[in-house]
Amino acid sequence: PNNIETDGDLLLDGLEAGLAEPEGDDTDLGVFIADADPLTSTDPADTDTDDDGLGDGVEDANLDGAVDPGETDPNDPDTDGDGYSDGVEVAAGSDPLDPNHHPGNMNDPYVSSVVDIGNDQGRRVRVGWGPSPLDVPDSPEPILEYSLYRRIDFAREESGGESLDIARHSRLSGEWDFVRSIPATGEETYNALSPTLCDSTEANGICWSVFFVRAHTAVPVVYYDSEPDSGYSVDNLAPEAPMNLVAEGNETQVVLVWDASEEDDFDYYAVYRGDTEGFELGEPIGYTTAETFEDNEPPPTSEWWYRVTATDFSGNESPPSDSAGVTGTGIEGDFPTTFSLGPPVPNPFRGTTTIDLGIPLGAGSARATVRIYDAAGRLVRTLTDGPRRAGFHPLNWDGTDSGGRKVASGVYYLRLEAGDIVEKRKAVLLK
Question: Which of 2, 92, 150, 191 has the fewest CB atoms inside 10 Å of its own CB, making it the most exposed?
Answer without folding.
Answer: 2
